[in-house]
Amino acid sequence: MTFSTSQALVTSEMPEEYFDRRRHKRVDLRLPGRFLTNFGKDASLSTINLSCSGALISSSTLPDPGAELVCYFDDLGRVVATVVRQTGDGFAVAFNVASHKREKIADRLTWLLNKDMLNLSEEREAPRYAADVPAQVVRPNGHILACRVLDISLTGANFECRGALPKLGEIVSAGTIPAEVVRTGQGGFAVRYLQKGERDSL
User: Which pTM does this prediction carry?
Assistant: First the structure.
């Protein structure tokens, strides 16, 4: 089986200048995800294209240029980024990552681009990523819980919270996303995000 240069799996024996070129080469790849601002607000996103150093993102929420975000990309993971400009239907970000993290992103992008052709097995459907950022969870009565996100995935999140906790099965708003409380414990609770059909029935 032969591969073009853009499709070849990258090895550690590649020359450094190849990594320099690859770092700035953008690939068209749609990855859903979410982002959190430093104010604890979150919103959904979808990448239009991305590279090791940044991404072009489609979103109905447009953070201001210069804003720092924590982005969670499906199949890619957690990346801290800075908004560099807004576009008509989204915004562009530059990744704030060290060189070794850029290489990991490059390897992951290569895997995603080649997984179908190479028949590579999928990983866990919705991996969770560690987080430590403030967030607001709103209960049905309008009471706002000041929480911290402990970990997050595309299907749910785990929160640390002081004071009275929501009840099991309660529908809350995690940021802007309706969610069901699926676990409670001392000092925190977990939620799963409601799917579109479930949201429409609320």
Answer: 0.51
